[in-house]
């Protein structure tokens, strides 16, 4: 199985972290988005949307979109509940990550870390801070009630949200305001099989 990604990307880290925790054998193939490597004909044949991560299974079928990949590999493991309501809560957090968290925190991080805060994007960067802090506060509130986002065991909801949350400071977000999130990050880092950003 081949996994195409960049371990500076939170979306790619999600997949790497899950596969490592579950001890699933794979070959990691680094893809540089800034050099246009996701726009080659070869890569587009795997993901026509031209984004990472992408997984090419042993039978050559491909999977894209990080949270869909998490759901695929977590099926029938402890990282995805079998209880119908709890499973729905996991997916609730996955949708939250894509619509209310990643568009603010990941984009602010991209502007600051990858682009070096170009003048033409400074206003956009500042406009993202409110939405990002709102997302972090919602997580903080939940993590004051439970060790993980869905109850007291780790699920793919935690893996998904961890990816960009633990480096939110690289987008201007001060995690010192969120002690429950900081404790949660430490719990995830202590998980057997943990891997971080490279």
Key descriptive features of the protein:
single chain, 198 residues, alpha+beta, Glutaredoxin, Glutathione S-transferase Yfyf (Class Pi), Chain A, domain 2, 2 domains, 4-stranded mixed β-sheet, 4 strands, 50% helix, 7% strand, globular
Structure, explained:
The chain starts with a strand and ends in a 9-residue tail after the last helix. The mean pLDDT is 96. Strand 3 and strand 4 form a beta hairpin. The protein is an alpha+beta fold. It is built from 7 helices and 4 strands; from the N terminus they run E-H-E-H-E-E-H-H-H-H-H. Helix 4 (84-114) packs parallel to helix 6. Helix content is 50%, strand content 7%. The chain folds into 2 domains: 2-74, Glutaredoxin; 84-189, Glutathione S-transferase Yfyf (Class Pi), Chain A, domain 2 (Up-down Bundle).
- Low-pLDDT stretches are none
Beta-strand segment tally: 4
Structural class: alpha+beta
Question: What is the name of the CATH topology of the largest domain?
Answer: Glutathione S-transferase Yfyf (Class Pi), Chain A, domain 2
CATH class label of the largest domain: Mainly Alpha
Largest sheet: 4 strands, mixed
Count of separate DSSP helical elements: 7
Q: Kindly, what is the distance between the CA atoms of the first and last residues, rounded to a whole number of angstroms?
A: 21 Å
Share of β-strand residues: 5-15%
């Amino acid at each position: 199985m081949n996994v195409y990604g960049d371990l500076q990307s939170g979306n790619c880290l999600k997949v790497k972290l899950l596969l490592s925790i579950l001890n699933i054998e794979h070959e990691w193939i680094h893809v540089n988005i800034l050099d246009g490597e996701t726009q080659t004909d070869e890569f587009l044949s795997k993901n026509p949307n031209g984004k990472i991560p992408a997984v090419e299974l042993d039978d050559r079928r491909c999977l894209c979109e990080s949270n869909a990949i998490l759901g695929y590999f977590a099926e029938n493991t402890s990282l995805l509940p079998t209880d119908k309501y709890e499973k729905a809560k996991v997916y609730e957090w996955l949708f939250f990550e894509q619509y209310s968290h990643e568009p603010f925190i990941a984009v602010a991080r991209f502007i600051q870390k990858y682009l070096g805060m170009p003048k033409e994007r400074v206003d956009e960067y500042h406009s993202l801070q409110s939405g990002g802090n709102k997302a972090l506060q919602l997580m903080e509130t939940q993590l004051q009630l439970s060790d993980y986002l869905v109850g007291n065991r780790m699920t793919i909801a935690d893996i998904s949200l961890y990816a960009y949350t633990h480096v939110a400071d690289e987008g201007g977000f001060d995690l010192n305001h969120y002690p429950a999130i900081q404790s949660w990050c430490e719990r995830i880092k202590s998980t057997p099989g943990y891997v971080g950003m490279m």
